[in-house]
Amino acid sequence: MRCALPLLVIALLVAPGCRCSRESPEERVRETIDDAVQAVRERDIKPLARAVSDSYADRERNDKQKILSLVRMHFVLHPNLYLMAKVDSVDCPSPTEARVIMFAAMASVPPGVVPDPRRISADVFRFDLAMADEDGTWRVVSASWAPASVKDLL
Predict the structure, then answer these.
(1) pTM, 2 dp
(2) What is the distance in angstroms between the CA of the first residue and the CA of the last residue of the chain?
(3) CB-facing half-sphere around the CA of 83: CA atoms within 13 A
(4) SS3 state at 81
(5) CB 104, CB 125: distance < 8 Å
(6) What does pLDDT average to over the chain?
(7) Region 90-119: what's the mean pLDDT?
(8) Alpha carbon 137 to its chain's center
(9) Non-local CB neighbours of 48 within 8 Å, separated by 6+ positions
(10) pLDDT, greater one: 152 or 114
């Protein structure tokens, strides 16, 4: 499961793109997280690579390149992967900073099947993400994770 953690971190990060809108930072963060989850479901590494800050660092001593390498490996090892994620809270202490708490789990399922979160057999994790608006694009700058329960995901 250690290899799955970086994929979950990436999946919970922001998707790429400058969003020129009048939405609040919290709305933009939530939208970009939704986009990132979809990118993982589609196994699209490019948006995920753009979602990680070049200065990314975590307590596992991962940097951006290490995270992306682990995600690629995970995509190869688990071809039928479904990501379930729930944003619990978004706190924006400034217009360019966000702290996100979310829960996520991955399950191997047949193609086209959306698993029932109440009946999954997967490890669930809590993610604490530090995000920054870098020139109009929200990116993760650090992340930490810990085990959680399926109840947290519901």
Answers:
(1) 0.80
(2) 21
(3) 32
(4) strand
(5) yes
(6) 83
(7) 84
(8) 15
(9) 10, 11, 13, 15, 36, 39, 40, 68, 71
(10) 152
